[in-house]
Amino acid sequence: MKNFDLDIEEGEFLAVLGHNGSGKSTLARLMNGLLLPDKGTVEVFGTALTEKNLYDVRRNVGVVFQNPDNQTVSMLVEDDVAFGAENVGLTREEIGERIAFALSAVGMEEYRHATVARLSGGQKQRIAIAGVLALKPRVLVLDESTAMLDPRGRREIMDVVLRLNREEHITVVLITHFMEEALLSSRAVVMNRGEIVMQGAPSDIFERHEELLTYNLTLPRIGEICKKLQAGGMNVPDTLDVEILAEAIAASLRSS
């Protein structure tokens, strides 16, 4: 990380993009003290991160990693979700309430007494998110949390994340290489070699297609479809809105 300066507002949904080795995961680990900076300062809710306040920071900033199997600590779903809450010394009654809240938030209430090993990849990742939510963090950091899932599993996780951001007002930092996921954010940041090289609304960033290519990034699939249709002679605009594209295709076909 170098020349790095980033402010994240409470309640924001920020997407962090970049190729492998760009510094995305380092950023995730700096945010909750899994790494401490050699130089510079990381501030969490206005307080500089130090070894003395790691406990409080980690209760407020939860990180979900790529492989849900690496985050499983118990055989039963409710025990797995309860693990973090138990470790911070909550009462049994409070832990029970936290389990119910977290499973409800990720839509997994009916699996409370299920065996984790029998769940699908998407369901396991939802349980991993629930384990973090049981601590009731103010920030949820997802470090490539959908990378190992199939398209259906990715949609399930993104639906959960959007709901948490909009209804529970949890700040979300989504680290991803799936451009379609970044479209859901309110702001996107592009990293390259430990630096921020682009930032702004996702639609503004994806308009800079040629610049994205220099950082080994591509357009979301809908953007690529627009470019291919234009190259084939169809009069459609550059858009990231599925409905606008569908209307433009229909209008072009009617006029031909």
Largest β sheet strand count, sense and barrel closure: 6 strands, mixed
Structural Rg = 20 Å
DSSP helix count? 11
Structural class: alpha/beta
Topology-level CATH name: Rossmann fold
CATH-defined superfamily: P-loop containing nucleotide triphosphate hydrolases
Number of DSSP E strands:
8
What order do the SSEs take from the amino end to the carboxyl end, as H and E? EHEEHEHHHEHEHEEHHHH
Distance between the termini: 53 Å
Number of domains: 1
Polypeptide structure, described:
With 256 residues, this protein is α/β, with parallel strands linked by helices. The protein has one domain: P-loop containing nucleotide triphosphate hydrolases (Rossmann fold). 43% of the residues lie in helices and 14% in strands. The chain has eleven helices and eight strands. A six-stranded mixed beta sheet has the order 4-5-6-1-7-8, with helices on both faces. The chain has a two-stranded antiparallel sheet with strand order 2-3. Helix 3 packs across helix 4, helix 4 (92-105) crosses helix 5 and helix 5 (121-133) packs parallel to helix 6. It is globular. The mean pLDDT is 89.
